[in-house]
Amino acid sequence: MSTHRERVNTAIAHKSPDRVPMDFAAEPEVWRRMHSHFNTDSREEILRILDVDCRVVSYDSQIFCNVPGAARDSSGSNLSPWTTAAPGGLKIDLWGARRRPSKNAFAAYDELCDYPLADAKSIDDLKRYPWPSPDWWDFSELNRAIDRINPEREYHLRFRIGSIFETAWSLCGIDRILEDLILQPDVPGCMMDRITEVHMENLKRVMEIAGDKIDMLYSYDDLAGQQDLLMSPQLWRKTVKVRQEKLFALAAGYGKPLMYHCCGNICPLISDLIDIGVNVLDPIQPLALKMDFETLKRTYGDRLAFHGGIDIQQLLPKGLPRQIIDEAKRAGEILGANGGYILAPAHHIQADTPVENIMALYGCH
């Protein structure tokens, strides 16, 4: 029998593992219900019960915060977001993006608001902004954080680098950045350059400290809606891709596979993403246009592995356990033919999902 790590590596190498490897991600409300269901306060114990093969350490974990006066999480959790509280219920992340809780029938989500660079009109305006410096991070606890969740290297561990385009628009607003990419691309370009520089320096420091313990690198940028891209492929290539290419080239230099996350219909960019070093595509949103398993596997399956694929919009919250089991089997048979697939929800499992459906997905029914 393979270890979890071996299983994932086999799949990424486009070989058939002993079973389809699995990953897990969920919203806080789901975690709370899982804690209650299994009568444990340990996320790691839940992942072990579900037989999940993957683990994640993220650049924005509170444990790595080195900002003077900021609270630092000493628990070693790799899931604590690096945020500070502000008046009016605002949460401010390490880049200065501001979010406010917004409730629905099932949960509360932190929604972006009050963009700090919404009025920036020039490079000089951006120079006055308090951009993070790599010295805001202290990765001295990285090895110990990894050893707590993966002491025997049994699990496949990826390091979450961060985003470029998403982080930029979180500071100025999505409408504003899409306009500026056309009308004055130097301004969003400068923002993305600053963000890219921080990610690249952080990645260098992380790999110097713990590179032998990290199995895969992970970046993300949502560039698509459910029907189409947020911008033309030509505009993406001129503005966003050139920054991603620099970051991905650095990642490739460490000899680790690279996973990239983008929701929606990302099909027009997949070939480009492969060309700049993406090895694993996430999350394969099955209800998005042109993201059907058969076409993706037939067109890209010899060059690209897939992560995700299990619908969180309709199937997981509203389906029957038997339907979920059947869909997981179908995904494994198509996307996982001759390897190349890690089964997972097509984003974090949402708060309207029953525990019994999660148990069905992970074979614990």
Chart the SSEs and their pairings.
Layout: H1 4-12, H2 28-38, H3 43-49, E1 54-58, E2 83-86, E3 90-93, E4 98-103, E5 108-113, H4 123-127, H5 142-149, E6 156-162, H6 165-172, H7 174-183, H8 186-210, E7 216-220, H9 233-239, H10 241-252, E8 258-261, H11 270-275, E9 280-282, H12 293-300, E10 305-310, H13 315-318, H14 321-335, E11 341-345, H15 355-361
Question: What would CATH call the class?
Answer: Alpha Beta
Shape: globular
Amino-to-carboxy terminus distance? 22 Å
Helix content: 25-40%
Textual characterization of the structure:
The protein has 365 residues and is α/β, with parallel strands linked by helices. The chain has helices spanning 4-12, 28-38, 43-49, 123-127, 142-149, 165-172, 174-183, 186-210, 233-239, 241-252, 270-275, 293-300, 315-318, 321-335, 355-361; strands at 54-58, 83-86, 90-93, 98-103, 108-113, 156-162, 216-220, 258-261, 280-282, 305-310, 341-345. The chain has a single domain (4-361), classed as Alpha-Beta Barrel (TIM Barrel), CATH 3.20.20.210. A seven-stranded parallel β-sheet has the order 1-6-7-8-9-10-11. The two termini are 22 Å apart. Mean pLDDT is 95; it is low at 74-79.
In short:
The chain has 365 residues and is α/β, with parallel strands linked by helices.
Index terms:
seven-stranded parallel β-sheet; single chain; TIM Barrel; globular; alpha/beta; 365 residues
